[in-house]
Amino acid sequence: MENEITLKRFIEIRRDLGFTQAEFAALIGVSNTTADIERGRTKLSGKVVTELLKQFKINPLWLFNESDSKYIETSHTSVIPKVVTVDSADRENMVLVNAKAAAGYPQNIADTSWYQQLPAFDLPIPEFRNATYRGFQVEGDSMLPNLRPGEWVLAKAIEHIDDVTPNKIYVVVLQDAVLVKKVIKKPNSNNVSLVSLNENYPPYEIKPFQIQEIWQVNSKITFGVDATTETGLLRQLQESMDELKSQLRVQN
């Protein structure tokens, strides 16, 4: 029989992920239900342990009480940009992801050719040169009053989820959505809370492995009415950049 801690941890994983015994069984390749495993009647097979690692990054050593780290950090949990975009001279540039493109972003995240159809902008400010930036259009009103629907944010790539801080706003790319939120890592929990500024939207919890990329918002651009065309958009972005440049000079 499995030791009690292992069974407790197995149950904890299922409950944390919010699955019934039958749903979890289907996911990890057990017939019918996980009830027998949870009662200690059926041995936890190598196949199940492998599935837990593969699908949910569960550390097998943690499962058998030989490690305190519940998750295994694999390259899969890295939130580094999957593609760094460059211009024809191989200089890094900033791609603008509008609300329409954002719908396809999670699925095309590693496809370099997909990015080539998006408007791109060179980075004239030295401060922007030594990091990867991307522009995202804000959808919906969940970040009011700070960000209005349709506004754009410029955001800097984050390498690791540990680099997020509670007082900043982030663009979080999940497996099926691109969201602008505050990201709160909870003490003593493996969950991450995505928090809206608009109080009508309750925070919701996700697992780190559901995140593909994180971008830290460091400025907002409000485009005027003539930004409906790509040229208008890029021209206004250039003007915003020049303004940002003069602000940075004042600060330094």
Q: Number of DSSP strands?
A: 9
- Mean pLDDT score, rounded? 86
Identify low-pLDDT runs: none
Q: Gyration radius, to the nearest Å?
A: 22 Å
Q: Ends: how far apart?
A: 66 Å
Instruction: Give the amount of beta strand, in percent.
Output: 15-25%
Task: Please state how the strands of the largest beta sheet are arranged side by side.
Answer: 2-1-3-4-9-5-6-7-8
Based on helices, strands and strand pairing, what is the structural class? alpha+beta
Q: In this structure, how is the largest beta sheet organized? A: 9 strands, mixed
Any idea what the shape is? elongated
**What portion of residues is helical?**
25-40%
Q: Element order, helices and strands?
A: HHHHHEHHEHEEEEEEEH
Architecture overview:
- The chain is of the alpha+beta class.
- Helix content is about 30%, strand content about 20%.
- The protein has helices at about 5-15, 20-30, 35-40, 45-55, 60-65, 100, 110-115, 125-130, 230-250; strands at about 95, 120, 135, 150-155, 170-175, 180-185, 190-195, 205, 210-220.
- The chain has a 9-stranded mixed beta sheet with strand order 2-1-3-4-9-5-6-7-8.
- The radius of gyration is 22 Å and the shape is elongated.
- The termini are far apart.
- The relative contact order is 0.12.
- The model has no long low-confidence stretch (mean pLDDT about 85).
